[in-house]
Hints:
The protein has helices spanning about 5-30, 35-45, 50-70, 80-100, 105-130, 135-160, 200-215, 215-225, 230-235, 240-255, 260-265, 275-285, 290-310, 310-315, 320-360. The chain is mostly helical. It has a domain at about 60-280.
Amino acid sequence: MSKDRWLALAPPIASLVFAFVVSSIVLAISGANPFVAFGNVFEYGVRLNTLVETINWSTPLYLSGVAVAIGFRMNLFNIGVEGQYVLAAFIAAQVGSQLDLPPVLHVSAIILTAMLIGALWAGLSGWMKVTRNVHEVISTIMLNSIAVGGVVSYLLGVWDVPDDTSLDTALAPIPESGWFPDLNFLVGGNTRSDLWGFVLVAVVVGVAYHYLINRTRLGYDLRASGANASAAEASGVDPKRTVVMAMVLSGLVAGLVGLPELLGDSHTYSLRFTQGLGFAGIAVALIGRNHAAGIAVGALLFGWLSRASGILEVRGDAPREIVAIIQGVIILSVVIAYSIAERYRRIEAAKAAAAAIGEER
């Protein structure tokens, strides 16, 4: 194995080992047997139903990670994916519930609505940055509060359709023509949970993201601006346009984050709609180093830990909060490991350059 490949693989492997050791110590301190606990998690985690739930849960995490990574590629910290996807899912659910279209058009209208809302909400932050020099962290945090605590909270009460059976606050359900088809035929229909078909959209988004960043002029502009904004501007890249484009693209993908659940499971927006995926996407993007395949690994890892950890409470091994500790340790150790690997790579590059100069002399 080449040195470069080893430097790429060593950090995540070392991080997982370190997280396992730290988690084992925490379990032992809490009075649980770490080998029994992790054995139960693995046994439960390889069951078909758990794997299906892992894929379902990983799909929005992956989309969230890609949305965050688009900003990271240009050194923009889009912490507003949370508000963007919640608002997008909410508006898309309301629009979808009011439409009466053939299935393909109905689903397409819901998806396009969500992407448009996400892009507009993220683009607003980009506009404030280039016109008023408002840092994107400040503006996206502000817009998160406005979206979730303001717009959604208010309109949910206005558009609420009372349900006497569940006593939940929810919008009208989306007709079946607006549901995204499941992929149960791939697993033989032998699971308690449906395999959400939106995973196919996530795959398309991942391929498009990889192609955009690595094979297009816009992707080059994003990477160049992220690496050295002054040099990129000197080479003809419009920094303001690039900032707005990066935020709009990030918002486009962020708008899709809530749709796997909306179109594959709940078919409406209610108080029980999953939140927190936007912030989880930051961790997934960090683990994946903003690469399409790496983000997929991070999403699957977090999805599997979230789904498989339920057995800890069922069997009394440990509280599920141990998973939060594992995830936190993984994130921290990944960042540290990659930093060490990058520093080592730079030292080796400097040595190689010095040796080459010495040979020329």
